[in-house]
Amino acid sequence: PYVVTDDCIKCKYTDCVEVCPVDCFYEGENMLVIHPDECIDCGVCEPECPAEAIVPDTDDRATKWLELNRDYATKWPNITRKKDALPDADEWKGKSGKLDLLSP
Ligand code: SF4
Ligand code: F3S
């Protein structure tokens, strides 16, 4: 599957949800996650993210985020429609190490 990394935190552009053919994105307050058992690995969401927050699970960056995606995908509600990005999204874009800022 593909996974959302902490690059999404405080950005949440939501362009990704519009293209997912199986609607497997789930929404937290300041981050989205992908349900790894529902993702069909199509890859169309990856280039849609302005923050480059989505990676395949074969990426080195993915390992540490896979369980986080699985965990929150069962707790957060499904999201299928694009909405406005978070207000300071452009300022937070490209910043790494944002896990401490996650609002569960
Ligand atoms: Fe959805 Fe495809 Fe992205 Fe998986 S890779 S989350 S199925 S758009
Ligand atoms: Fe997050 Fe990128 Fe989607 S910032 S909400 S993974 S478009």
TrEMBL record:
Alphabetized, the UniProt keywords read: 3Fe-4S, 4Fe-4S, Electron transport, Iron, Iron-sulfur, Metal-binding, Repeat, Transport
State the name under which the record lists this protein. Answer: Ferredoxin
> Which cofactors does this protein require?
[3Fe-4S] cluster; [4Fe-4S] cluster
PANTHER family listed in its UniProt record? FERREDOXIN, OXIDOREDUCTASE
Q: Where is the 4Fe-4S ferredoxin-type domain?
A: 1-29, 30-59
**Which Gene3D superfamilies does the record match to this protein?**
3.30.70.20
Any GO molecular function = 3 iron, 4 sulfur cluster binding
Protein function: Ferredoxins are iron-sulfur proteins that transfer electrons in a wide variety of metabolic reactions.
- PROSITE patterns per the record? 4FE4S_FER_1 (PS00198), 4FE4S_FER_2 (PS51379)
Q: Sorted alphabetically, which Pfam families does this protein's record hold?
A: DUF3470, Fer4
Q: Which organism is it from?
A: Azospirillum cavernae
